[in-house]
Amino acid sequence: MTDGTYGTQRKAAARNRIAIIEAAHELFARNPLVPLSEVAKRAGVGAGTLYRHFPTREDLILAAYQHDIERLTTTADEVLARHTSAKAAFVEWFETLSAYIRIKHGLGDALHSAAAQDMIQAAWAPTTAAVAKLVKACVAEGTIAPGHDPADIIMLMSFLWRVANDEEGAAQGRRLIAAVFSGLQTPPQPA
């Protein structure tokens, strides 16, 4: 095998891996119990290709979740650039995060393994950094008072992944976000 052929095969394998992860993201969002054969079909690969990349269902679930969180944590600047209001960007970003986490909760046991917990723990720092950017923009805009800890805000916003995944839940989420922003306009109390 020549170096050119090997490089081409590696690129194709990398494309297949991403296609599988993206198909899994989409299908797991609809049905956490979707058959892996359907994921392979959606990705345009054979079952053998899927299993070469992800020997178990848990491996695929973890890869899809990690891909989603990594993608989200790098989008704070992009979301801020898309909106004229930092508050609107903050709300969009947290609604996207909550959708990912609701999917995670639907995936059950696969995300309770030691490997999953390590991955979730590793995502904390980049998630907090993304929230810090959003908070800084909101402080500059005057919609959040200075001094709030981004980690505290993540905990406060965690209600979003507990609301129902329907129109009533979305409406409840918007009401709760308004209440959060009302509270965040007041500087934090000293510990």
TrEMBL record:
Q: Which residues bind DNA?
A: 35-54
SUPFAM superfamilies in the record, alphabetically? Answer: Homeodomain-like, Tetracyclin repressor-like, C-terminal domain
Q: Does the keyword Transcription apply?
A: yes
Q: From the Swiss-Prot or TrEMBL record, what is one GO molecular function term? A: DNA-binding transcription factor activity
- Domain annotation HTH tetR-type: ranges: 14-72
Q: InterPro entries in the record, alphabetically?
A: Homeodomain-like_sf, HTH-type_TetR-like_transc_reg, HTH_TetR, Tet_transcr_reg_TetR-rel_C_sf, TetR_SbtR-like_C
Q: Which Pfam families match?
A: TetR_C_43, TetR_N
Keywords per UniProt:
DNA-binding, Transcription, Transcription regulation
- Superkingdom of the organism of origin: Bacteria
**Which PROSITE patterns has this protein been placed in?**
HTH_TETR_2
PANTHER family of this UniProt entry? HTH-TYPE TRANSCRIPTIONAL REGULATOR BETI, HTH-TYPE TRANSCRIPTIONAL REGULATOR RUTR
Q: What is this protein called?
A: TetR family transcriptional regulator
